[in-house]
Amino acid sequence: MSDLAARPEGAMVGAALPHESAARHATGTAVYTDDLAAGRHDVLTAWPVQSEHAHALVSLDVGPALEVPGVVRVLTAADVPGENDAGAKHDEPLFPAEAMFHGHALAWILGETPEAARLGAAAVRVGYEPLPSIVTVGEAIEAGSFQGIAPTVRRGDAQAALAGAPHVFEGVSEVNGQEHFYLETHASLAHVDSEGQVFVESSTQHPSETQEIVAHVLGVPNHRVTVQSLRLGGGFGGKEMQPHGFAAIAALGATLTGRPVRVRLTRTQDLTMTGKRHPFHATWRAGFDEEGRILALEATLTSNGGWCLDLSEPVLGRALCHVDNAYWIPDLTVQGRIAKTNLTSQTAFRGFGGPQGMFVIEDILGRVAPLLGIDPAELRERNLYRPGQTTPYGQPVRHAERLHEEWARVRAESRFDERRAAIAAFNDAHPDVKRALAITPVKFGISFTFTAYNQAGALVHVYKDGSVLVNHGGTELGQGLHTKMLQVAATALGVRMSAVRLAPTRTDKVPNTSATAASSGADLNGAAVKDACDQIRGRMAPVAARLLGIDEADVRFAAGRVSGPDPDGTSLGFDEVAEAAYADRVQLFAAGFYRTEGLGWEPGAMQGHPFKYFAYGVAASEVEVDGFTGATRLLRTDIVHDVGDSLSPIIDLGQVEGAFMQGVGWLALEELRWDTSDGPGRGRLLTQSASTYKLPSFSELPDELNVHFLERATEDGAVYGSKAVGEPPFMLAFSVREAIREAVAAFGPEGYSVELGSPATPEAVFWAIEAARAAREATGEPGAPSTPAAPELAGLPAAALRRR
Amino acid sequence: MDDWTVTVNGRSRSLHDVAPHTSALDWLRAQGLTGAKEGCAEGECGACSVLLATPDGADGTAWTAVNSCLVPAAALDGQEVVTAEGLGTPESMHPVQAALAAAGGSQCGYCTPGFACSMAAEFYRAGRATGGADASTDDAAPTDDAVAFDLHALAGNLCRCTGYRPIRDAAEGLGVPDADDPLAERRSHPAPAVVATSLEAGGARFVRPASLDDALARLADEPDATVIAGSTDWGVEVNLRGRRAPLTVAIDRLPELRAFAVDDAGIELGAALTLSEVGRLLDGRAPLLDDLLPQFASPLIRNRATLGGNLGTASPIGDAAPALLALEARLVLVAADGEREVDLAEYFTGYRTTVRRPGELIRAVRIPLPLAPLTGFHKVAKRRYDDISSVAVAFALDVGADGVVASARIGLGGVAATPIRARATEAVLVGRRWDLDTVRDAASVLGSEGTPMSDHRASAEYRALMLNRSLLKLYRSARPEEVVPA
């Protein structure tokens, strides 16, 4: 086992500890960015003036705003001393002259109170010269409106393979976007300190990039700006690139007024201004042999990137690298492109394109299984990767056997076959309600595909009293990173958990950090923390050896004691050794660093080893569908997921369950509706509040949820043998969508292929049921009377599945 | 008189200079009590949940969870509030907080204080657990219904991180309050008295009249005043749409509006009773309302929202109206010059307009008895808990011993500018045998009632079909003994 993966005896990693802030969360004493501003009377509030057109040249008359009592200042492009830009791609003017989407912030009002700032924003007179706008992917395709790269993943000759395939299917799959709906909306609080340092508290997943954007807007070097991220009330990718502009507004306001300035978006501002998961549109042709083995796939994926590039390119890249999900596809050509539209700038969201890529293959398998006459579970199992196979982009699928092990375990533990038989009997007895049980796999690549991001730093201090302070470059979004880092530090130094404290993440402690994203937080920062701790322990060991009169190689650090090989022999307190080391003039602090080894990726060719390893999971879900309304209920889900050797089981279990439920929301409930009409509201987000955008509540929790980790799953290439866990379980939710599809199929004739709208809301499910019933009626089988065909609004795929 | 005060976590705090539009949430946060969070500012997420000491219907107090974003701070004058900070501290957590923390019930933690308050309200619910001498010990798992935690208590709280399973486990593992639990003990004393309030700040006034006569007199003088009861609708207008009222009159605690009476002729429900109170007081007397109430928003809303408010705003998607239409409810309207009674079916005149005159209040809702034996409330929405109806259908049918429909009343929401009666469908049903042929005929008529529209919740076509299917569903689900009395 590698030094990185090996665990010492008595390791604190692996202990089932609650979140390090759990007690403060529960008692309301955990502090979030905007809590810092509450009750302070010197803080100004910034409020945006938002565009009421999807695309227009704008002119501003801010005079009336300045007449509003309590308005202190209006921020416009003229106030920017540096670059008028809020994005890493230099295509996001902080103060635009051209409104690029409905809701685009055009100017910001600083007020003594939120009320004054709000009224000031309402008083600004905005002149619009409307320009043509593009809202949907379809419109963008028709208009040829694209942006950024258009990569292709290719292996073999898909065209030739399709020409020779016994069964070829083609179709269109469309998947919706998703709002992050972190419970804490975007927030920033900035002030300029006595030394001229611009200090920004920001709810950001990427403090270093926030720092860089603030600095370039202010026209100052990065060293003048410090960004601190206390803790986030949820991020999910939505605070990877989106916070920068808000932090810049707060910082600009603070430098211009000399007073602290806060930005805290209302929910509607957050929904209408910030990016979301990319919707995707895919056209595809897939070939199968007589046994249902996939022979070839050709597909074109088009994402709706919104008005600027943001993270659309890497999101698309990851989508293309996950079209295979967990299946061997010998010949494949998948092209991708990014539509440029007048919507919010779509951005990172848990899975980062992976879910959208997998959606395509899972939709294909779910649709063609009945046409092939093969049980979908059987079809999926037959196509799972086997050891020795490689992905279309050329990376060996290491540990492919884990997929099969998990598959078998989920089938056994969920009593899959037995319950399926019971479900068949239930369905025979219930004409109006149908159930189904479906099983799906996940294979998800871990590492940033932007290779430079696969590095991290940490700064660890051991004080003379033996207490330890850990800084690292990752941010705490609720995923439990800080808990894991405390466990890593306690393990590496051999001290008790109570001896270690973790300081809030800030850019003046650890510089040039990567985003806390791509599930990589623990892998990268954990290895960096371990490196720093290993250095310090390495320097303390000779001191302890001298004090204990033993060989340096025999010194052990465990549970706050330092001893020789015999645990019952003489020992010293960690604090005593620290004190002695200080007296010996030994450095008791260290900067740790880690870079992921073994990565090699050619983004142009889309070939290589972009991932350190894959995380695997399998889920089986049972749903019940109401034939009257299309409403679904999730009855039971069984999951086996691969987290390597867990660093922190309660944390990892929470990630698996939470990701799964968020995936269920994406696939079966959450619906972003935009005004696609030609009316005056064109481009406006219609679901712009919690009352219209519904995320999962208690009612979506399955009655029974069984989650197990894959056992004996050490990942040799990651810290203490663990695996990343934030994103992969999100895609376990495909089991729910496929179960809904199969339940709908039970309303139709034998061998009926179900096209299911996405999200599978009650209405979308209802229309699918109606189509299934109509098909049954057409075959002369008994069933409920059918009704008119689905309207466009139901969001069904435009092109029908055709068999050739 | 300027001694407006609120007791928060046992400490008295002044409401001086609080504007009428300021929510309890913003006021608490400005006091430095930042445990309550704003997640949506419209009562949908529960991150702002706090506990209010409210009358328990006897002489004691109930700890009632509410969305503090929708409660005007001024409405708290003289009242008692407990926030997550008041339940416990990191060093000495409240049992619900300890359970949440230990179970992994928090990840980002932003929603957690709100969950703690909703859980605490259920923890202290009278009838769930008596506490006192036989309080269970730490390791005693709840075993019977008296102790069981009703998870519906958490239906108004959203969590984006955990997926809810650990929160469910934490809730279901709760015991009963310790004998010396101060909040449990507080329940045995009366709730704070209602305080007549008159408060002015920033050019706007907030008034809580001392009596119905006071209220009516003021409304006669100033008929444009904004009248609020639970403020669950007005609070959204204030927070999301920036509406401000020069004068806000709070009527939710007027005793004349909080009557409950049952006699042979009918049930009278005070318009200012909260929906939670209505459910408790009815105690199963009106099965249609028992169907409705758990589907009406969330407990955090039902703890504040009133029937009078739901009918006063006259929203076409308010869920109370369809049910009350099916029950042939009548409204008692009261003004300074006297009372009148109107049929609810005659009450709505257009989109959010009614026959209620300026200065007139809804005093009570009267439901005639006996009730039709076959009832059902069908709500179609995207989400099962805490969602707004795409379509709501309420049925109240009477099928005689001969199997013939003797009477039929059907109320509809979400398919027209107002809640409506499905009179054409009713006419098809009455006098015909209650069988599949009749139901199919009637369902096809029901599917053409109203003028449903397409919006972000549902398409017009789906709404119309849901009307159609609701009658079929009622027919399929009706038990024979409910349909034809023996």
UniProtKB/TrEMBL annotation, chain A:
Q: What is its EC number?
A: 1.17.1.4
Name the enzyme's class: oxidoreductase
Q: Where is the Aldehyde oxidase/xanthine dehydrogenase a/b hammerhead domain?
A: 27-132
| Entry keyword Oxidoreductase | yes
Q: Give GO terms: molecular function aspect only.
A: xanthine dehydrogenase activity
* A Pfam entry, by short name: MoCoBD_1
| Alphabetic keyword roster | Oxidoreductase
Q: Where is the composition biased (Low complexity)?
A: 780-804
What domain of life does the UniProt record list for this protein's source?
A: Bacteria
**Would the keyword Oxidoreductase be found if you checked this record's keyword annotation?**
yes
For the region Disordered, give the residue spans: 776-804
In the UniProt record, the signal sequence range is none
Q: What InterPro entries does this protein map onto?
A: Ald_Oxase/Xan_DH_a/b, Ald_Oxase/Xan_DH_a/b_sf, Ald_Oxase/xanthine_DH-like, AldOxase/xan_DH_MoCoBD1, AldOxase/xan_DH_MoCoBD2, AldOxase/xan_DH_Mopterin-bd_sf, Xanthine_DH_Mopterin-bd_su
Check the record and name the PANTHER family matching this protein: XANTHINE DEHYDROGENASE
This chain's protein is named Xanthine dehydrogenase molybdopterin binding subunit
Q: Which organism is this protein's natural source? A: Agromyces aurantiacus
Gene it is expressed from: xdhB
From TrEMBL, chain B:
The cross-references to Pfam families, in alphabetical order and at most eight, read:
CO_deh_flav_C (PF03450), FAD_binding_5 (PF00941), Fer2 (PF00111), Fer2_2 (PF01799)
SUPFAM superfamilies in the cross-refs:
2Fe-2S ferredoxin-like, CO dehydrogenase flavoprotein C-terminal domain-like, CO dehydrogenase ISP C-domain like, FAD-binding/transporter-associated domain-like
Q: Which residues form the 2Fe-2S ferredoxin-type domain?
A: 2-87
Query: FAD-binding PCMH-type domain: from which residue to which, for each copy?
Result: 199-372
**Protein species of origin:** Agromyces aurantiacus
UniProt protein name: Xanthine dehydrogenase small subunit
Write out the entry's keywords from A to Z.
FAD, Flavoprotein, Iron, Metal-binding, Oxidoreductase
Q: Out of the domains of life, which is the source?
A: Bacteria
